[in-house]
Write a structure and sequence with these properties.
Blueprint lengths: L3 E7 L21 E2 L2 E3 L8 E5 L39 E4 L9 H14 L2 E4 L6 E2 L12 H6 L7 E6 L7 H15 L5 E3 L23 E7 L11 H8 L3 E5 L3 H5 L6 E2 L5 H11 L3 H21 L1 H12 L1
Parallel strand pairs: 1-3, 1-4, 4-5, 5-6, 6-7, 8-9, 8-10, 10-11, 11-12
Antiparallel strand pairs: 2-3
């Protein structure tokens, strides 16, 4: 069997030099899954994945990522120089950020530009050329074999939340307001994350999300966006892979992808939601009741929703 290589470009900082991007998401060496190999930096790949890539805008304007790049000037990008000679029908554009009101115009321009270069264009919104769920990636550094075979780790604490202090959109600010209200209650939970407000009690940043999830029965998985049928992010995958029972706030996409009972629905980001968290996290009973469903969901994430599995299927269909 011939192994096709898949290269990658992205506007996410830190991925430009990551030779091992997603290699932890396969049981095989060097990013092999089925008939393909994830080689992000390959100079002459057989396929190319444009992963949340921001095209140069006309007239030039800031992308959604620029708000995180304080003091940096955005350079002019020559798109053709990144395509590495890959034919259009083998170039994949996957947009993974939610269609927040503040960035919808930029998202639409990205889709329009992608049609010049890419044979397949998808994103988690209704106006994408191909609306679809985001194939799963996760942010634990554990090996695939470890995640696939491990029993539940020892649970010693009730609940955690890993989030950030980003406040650039209405949705981000709503989440931060809920965080303030939750900490003002008497609910016991541990908070981890970067750039969090000084006014909240936090346990610090994490180099590996595993340590802020695996010891907990429950994990708050609160999306930045919950208003369509497509968007669901790694917040849910990370929680389940750490054998947590997620208390999830998001759209209905998760219900279509995961088995019933594998996560709990947070009803709202208000007093009703706080009361729900308090009731659930008071005992580990809900976690024990959901353990089999969590185990099933983990296998679906690892083997079916996995981005490498998605890419392998794409390669099958276009080789």
């Amino acid at each position: 069997m011939t192994i096709a290589t898949v290269g990658m470009i992205s506007s996410y900082r830190g991925l430009e030099t990551r030779a091992d991007w997603l290699w932890q998401q396969t049981p095989n060496q060097f990013g092999v899954w089925g008939n393909m190999q994830m080689q992000a930096l390959a100079t002459k790949p057989d396929f190319l994945l444009m992963y949340q890539f921001d095209f140069p805008q006309t007239p030039p304007q800031k992308s959604w990522l620029d708000s995180f790049r304080k003091g940096q000037q955005k350079s002019v990008v020559n798109v053709d120089s990144f395509l590495r000679g890959v034919n259009k029908e083998r170039i994949i554009y996957l947009l993974r950020e939610p269609p927040l009101d503040e960035i919808v115009e930029i998202t639409n321009q990205n889709y329009q530009q992608a049609q010049k270069y890419c044979g397949y264009i998808s994103g988690p919104d209704d106006f994408a050329p191909t609306p679809d769920y985001m194939p799963a990636i996760w942010y634990h550094s554990n090996s695939f074999q470890d995640l696939n075979e491990m029993p539940p780790p020892q649970k010693v604490a009730p609940c955690s939340w890993i989030t950030s202090g980003i406040s650039r959109t209405v949705n981000h600010r709503q989440r931060l307001d809920f965080l303030q209200s939750l900490q003002a209650s008497d609910i016991k939970f541990d908070l981890y994350g970067r750039n969090l407000p000084e006014s909240v009690k936090k346990s610090g940043e994490l180099g590996n999300k595993w340590y802020g999830m695996a010891p907990y029965y429950y994990n708050l998985a609160i999306e930045n966006y919950a208003d369509n049928n497509w968007y669901v992010s790694e917040k849910l995958w990370d929680s389940l892979l750490a054998w947590c029972l997620p208390i999830y706030y998001g759209g209905p996409a998760a219900d279509k992808l995961l088995p019933p009972g594998s996560f709990l629905r947070l009803p709202s980001l208000d007093e009703k939601g706080i009361a729900y968290i308090k009731e659930v996290t008071a005992t580990p009973d809900a976690w024990y009741a959901a353990k089999d469903a969590i185990a099933e969901a983990r296998q679906i994430i690892l083997h079916k929703l996995n981005l490498l599995n998605w890419l392998s299927n794409f390669v099958d269909q276009h080789s």
